[in-house]
Amino acid sequence: MTSTIEPEVGKARRRKEDERLITGRTRWTDNLTLPGMLHLAVLRSPFAHAKIVSIDVTEAKSAPGVVAVFTGKDLDPESAIGMPCAWPITPDMKSPRRPILASDTVNFAGESVAVVVARTSAEAHDALEAIDVDYDELPVVLGLENALAEGAPLVHEELGTNQNAVWVFDSADAGTGSSVEDAISTAEKSGIVLKRRFRQQRLVPAFMEPRACVVDPTGSQLVMWSATQVPHILKTMTAATLGLPEHKVRVIAPDVGGGFGGKIAVLPEEMMSTLIAQRLGKPVKWTESRSETMVAAHHGRDQIQDLTITANRDGTVTGLKVELLADMGAYLGLVGPGVPILGAFMFNAIYKFPAYHFACTNVFTNTTLTDAYRGAGRPEATFGIERIMDELAVELGMDPMELREKNWIKHEEFPFTTVAGLTYDSGNYEAATQKAKELFDYDGLRREQKERRDSGDPVQLGIGISTFTEMCGLAPSRVLGSLDYAAGGWEHAEIRVLPTGKIEVITGASAHGQGHETAWSQIVADKLGVPFEDIEVIHGDTQSSHKGMDTYGSRSLVVGGIAVVKAADKVLAKAKPIAAHLMECSEDDLEFEAGKFSVKGTDSSTSIQDIAWAVFSAHNLPDGVEPSLDSADTFDPENFSFPHGTHLCAAEVDTETGRVRLRSYVCVDDVGVVVNPLIVEGQVHGGLAQGIAQALFEEAVHDEGGTLTTGTFADYLLPSAADLPSFTTDRTETPSTTNPLGAKGVGEAGTIASTPAVVNAVVDAVRHFGVDDIEMPLTPMRVWHAVRHGSSAAGGLGSEAGGGLGSIDATGGAQ
């Protein structure tokens, strides 16, 4: 018998799933080939807004290898409900029906209008060219303020408006604080009132594996394989959308090549594939091209943020007012309307605001819909508050770190209920900041910055700060219910103890690269005292893992992992009376450690493996005890978890060319108790890359006709490892008090914190040229214009100066 001596939790184990992933010895959705399988190719509209006058598919039907061609009129009667939106944020939210295939009107460039079914993928795509669609173009509306202007073209004529919904939170009304208008009135007389507008550009999730699905209707169940983050949600929504009996639908998410929120949707193509598979009685496969991903998968961000902050002359903040415009695109995504609302609770961040007002207006435009993208509302909020804190520091003549320290929640004040109504359970912003400053050499870099400025060095140095917190572990079901979200935030796990003492862990948190198989194995190894290698983690199949709410919102460990912990506790509770019976002692005399039940004060013991075999044989069990150790738990969190950290960025800006080089980047994060440091490092590094990419590189740009002009990676600028600096990362640890692991989420921290740190650094470098903002991404052209003409020119460039300008500089800038 083998027992685990050294604790697994906290050990930097290499991920057990990586051997198959890195070597390609795995199964992606597009790898699947079923007997008699047919292939789908989708025809997409080249226009952002147009009436469909006619669709002629005659020639396409006779093309080589073509089995069938479907238009919206062919499929629409079977899908009258349209695509689902699970988050009606207000009772009067306008929710236009999104068809699976457009039959009357197209509302964004890339909307699907017809689908070819052929024997091979190549034949299906070739036949698309034979479809003749006659469009009658309609006026296009782009841009949030344009869409709300009087007389603007309407995306959906039947709605009579482009305004989707208005959602408001006011601390005075909620009883969590005082009136912002009173704070503004007071500050106008004796303090500071500062207003700023920030732009969150539109981003493409750009996951490694394009979306795909395979549907097999030939068995007793309809089986769908999908490159999805949410197999359980997809199963339920497929049944509800298409009117199928849910017990006859099985969804499998095999290994998935990334998601970042971009695979949280329920797709028209998944519904289309299901309908066509049922119609033809044969398996079908749809795999999108990369260019389809860019135009038809959902986008992220795209907000205008108007912030007003008030403060006393000594730097004490007194109020915060946030007014958002958020672009929904042409339709509503599965959770898209609620994404800005998640940010509503985070604009106040780590600061003790006595008054707070938040209002968000969601808007329709003739663009691809927006939905969750890594961080989902919290990066946008962190960007806004961390940018305006820097601006307030300048207005007050204070060091921006000093201003933050003056206003943040002190470690002895936890638990702390914020002005937004959330209770932060634990944290220590002082400790994380002190460690970050030491690693960064904050004071030394400030001295160098002054020397460069005094000498007129053409390469100026800027220092950017981001002290952040976020709410992870989405989410307590009652909170989601209060926000009108359609589902809960619980998670399910099961543990099966096999006869030989090996363990199967079944989790509803379906991974797409996060390392669940390794982390869950470490947790169970410690709880049950079995070797790490003896544990298998099963996920992603709604037949074997029948319950779950899936993976997003940094919820896997702090919700799904806790369900695993609680299921393991139940295994031990079942094993204890059996162990007492086998050793002929009282349960009260037993203790459990390192995989063994022992009689206190004696050498008598029995292992979990011995008990597993005794249960399997069932020859000698206590009366009334079932022969099973298998256990399950469904965990619904009481609260969010609140990781935090301090991120510091030093940026060098060449004032003659606008080139930005990230000289150093330091982050100290507090994610509570760490299960696997290697996994945490990977999550932080990946998050930093995405957040820095928003600051410097990425932007989805449309021309005046609504065509995406950044529809390839030649135009949409993604950084590689060579374009980013080496990161200095470290951690502090204040355990969460709301879960037995003491863990907090980590999956989105890097993305949330890094964008404002980088932008603050660049603005800090060129502020003495009259610059107080530069619109993201901070391309060399925008930075150069800002240096010469001030913020008005940099912010006024608009999408014409978007991502994709010039080549990448290997040290981290673009030129």
Automatic annotation (TrEMBL):
Alphabetized UniProt keyword annotations: Molybdenum, Oxidoreductase
SUPFAM superfamilies: CO dehydrogenase molybdoprotein N-domain-like, Molybdenum cofactor-binding domain
Domain Aldehyde oxidase/xanthine dehydrogenase a/b hammerhead: 23-139
Domain of life: Bacteria
Gene3D superfamilies according to UniProt: Aldehyde oxidase/xanthine dehydrogenase, a/b hammerhead, Aldehyde oxidase/xanthine dehydrogenase, molybdopterin binding domain
Region annotated Disordered, chain positions: 794-815
Cofactor (UniProt): Mo-molybdopterin cytosine dinucleotide
One Pfam family recorded for the sequence: Ald_Xan_dh_C
GO molecular function: iron ion binding; oxidoreductase activity
Biased composition (Gly residues): 794-806
Keyword Oxidoreductase in annotation: yes
PANTHER family noted in UniProt: ALDEHYDE OXIDASE 1-RELATED (PTHR11908:SF132), XANTHINE DEHYDROGENASE (PTHR11908)
Protein name per the record: Carbon monoxide dehydrogenase
Organism, scientific name: Amycolatopsis thailandensis
